[in-house]
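This section describes the prediction task in plain terms. A model, or a person checking by hand, is given the sequence of a single protein chain and must write out its three-dimensional structure as a string of tokens. No templates, partner chains or ligands are provided. The sample shown here is typical of the held-out split.
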Amino acid sequence: QTVSLFLRDHGLVRGLAKGARRERGSFSGGFDLFTRGEIVLISKPGRELATLTEWTLLETFPILRRDAAANRCGWYLADLIGRFLHQPEPHPATWTATVTALRELDRGVDVDRVLLAFQWRMLCDLGYRPRLDLDGLEGDTVAFSAESGGVVEDSGTPDRWRVRRTTIELLDSIASGDGVIPEVAEAASVGRANRLLATWVRELLGTETVPMRLLFGS
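The expected answer:
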């Protein structure tokens, strides 16, 4: 069985799990998407696949199989990790953000709030934190430019996305709070901030992915 794993200290690793399907093997619980565990592996320079020798299942997130909204969110997270991360580059902050998001989904935390926190933390960790400077910009609406990577004046040109000032202010408060969404944040503002970051992600990837379309619509 060939699997892809997101490791806290090693990033994405592709490996061959020999004997994973054996009843008396060293792979407790088997491999499945949206699970957390401990792995023992052998990695040799020049080899694309590591040899996985042991797997201990520690944590599952059942809500992802019971709730459609949580499932769509989980698929979006997994898709972003697969597209943005390259082996073998460790990204412990994104790993922690992923585990936090899955645990919050499983506890029933609002999907939009979970998603916004994850998108923000991942983008910051990977060097794509958007610029949110509102100094010198007047009015209730501003704009976001993919070319400049952040907030600009709303000139009405097609290369800029019109954004409510309150959306940028929410993101700025999240930035100041180390990725934590303020409890007083309104659901509508959280939703708009999510769509803005997803649009930024789409521009970075150069494509609208299927999980993105299912989560946000076209």
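For orientation: The chain has a mean pLDDT of 92.
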